[in-house]
Design a protein that fits this description.
single chain, 600 residues, alpha/beta, Rossmann fold, 3 domains, six-stranded mixed sheet, four-stranded mixed sheet
Amino acid sequence: MIHFWDCLSLGSMNPFDFSPEQLELKQKTNKRSVAQLSVLRIFSFFALGATLILTISEHWAWALPSILCFFLFVRLINRFNHLKDQERIYLALQQLQTQKQARQERKLDALDSGIEFADKEHPFAGDLDLFGPHSLFQLLNHCTSAGGKQQLATLLKSAVNPKAAQQRRAAAAELQEKPDFLRAMEAIGIAFPQGKVGPWKQWLEQKERQPNLLHWLLAILGPVGGVLVLLFTTQGIFPQAMLGIWFLVGILLLGMVFVPLKRAAEAIPVASHLNSLRLRAAQIEGNSFQSDLLQAEQARLQAGSSPASHQLKELDRLGLWTQNRLNLLYLPFNLLFWTDFILYLRLAAWKKRVSHSLVQLPETLENWEVWVSLGSFEVEVGHPGISVWTQEPILEGQNVFHPLLLPSKAVGNSLTLNTNQKLVLLTGSNMSGKTTFMRTLGINAVLLNLGLRPFADRMTLGPLQLFTSMRTTDNLGESVSSFYAELSRIRTLLQRLEQDEPIFFLLDEILKGTNTQDRISGSEALVAQLLPSQGIGLISTHDIELAALGEKEARVQNYSFHSEIQDQEILFDYRLKEGVCPSFNAHKLMELMGIKFESK
């Protein structure tokens, strides 16, 4: 607990507290300390002003108390800012707890949907609820910057890569064991919002003219001359006009560094953004990692002469100085002592020393936002399933269920696809779970590719690319009907299969936009094209006639979902069963919705 007199401590600042324990109590204590510091700051400010007046008007002996009041005032400001930052972190931790509960309860409406990343032309993203309302992005995303979200979305939509997926699995498993690190990284990103980094990167990459001998001489002459002019003027040795002349000379000479300092002030991120970069860099530097991917990402922060967090801490001080040069309190101080030359020399030296190692820092931290998302997913909602990668074109799911459903209510099912059982024809009643099961297999394949554990007891996947055709819709702007849109998707699938690309495909109610006879004949022709290819997958249909293919072709298997009608109610068990669905419920559903059939 922070006590009143801790506010006056002149020791180093305590590290920030990222623990969610007793959060409400800590927030109250922190607010009380902030209020106490506000009062102390006011008293120290007036004491500083009084001692300065006494120093000038009475005696130089008051200079020492004035200096002490100045350092006390600065210390109180730093302490106040530290506690305000801690307050932001506590609020961020509170937000994290709320979001965690929402994800665990699958109440995702308030979370960022990532709808801007949706792409209906993508091979699978548009059909598997990766983005949009109640999506995998909402369950997975812990990024705090636009760039981080973009990188996460790119990874979600990436092609299946078994080698990279296994490397990501090792990294995610390691991060899962570091919940404190994950929580701190995300809390920092929320507490200290990040702005655009474009101007800063351009400034870092831009070569500056190096200071010359004149800059060094003026950096020494300014403070020395300012002290002498002030001393001699107050003692009556110099006329007061001399102080004005010194100011005018300062204005002319300071113009030499005005433009580069103005450019730096506009480019250096604000304190909140620098805090975000520095604190997250320090978190990464302060941890040890074992996986190759995480070690490589960590090494990017050590590319310069010193750790990135140290470089940013120095830039934070220089940036604050640079951005407050036109402050009314600083301006006369600058004109008297020509401190802009000292700032220019320090800034030029910093930039020459470390700028090359910080150019890629924002992108590096965006990568870490993705890693934090993967690790936090496993901590908050991950399922202890086993993922297995193989070189064979296989998909096998044991008791696999959908991650966007509550685990307590989700029904798991098992299925195997391989070269001997290449195609499953899936029949079943309306609302019985056919489409959900297909999406379950697809979205769990995405999880495996991300390096996450499947929502299954065990899931095995070979080097198969994912392709779906499930949500084909019309497009009035392009004069495209839903039937033509579906045919275009199927054509893309066939073209890829003709190039011997191994694909796991999911086709939902194919050719539904045409008449029954054409749909059946077209479906049979499509199956005949799919079987000799490198693809394996599922096709759902309401056409029982297609089930005959399972009797003619050993590589085609019939599976189904059933329903049962009891007392004017349709019941579903959502269990996958071998064989063709024996009955359908469309007639009963239409009756329940008010459609009256004439009795025969």
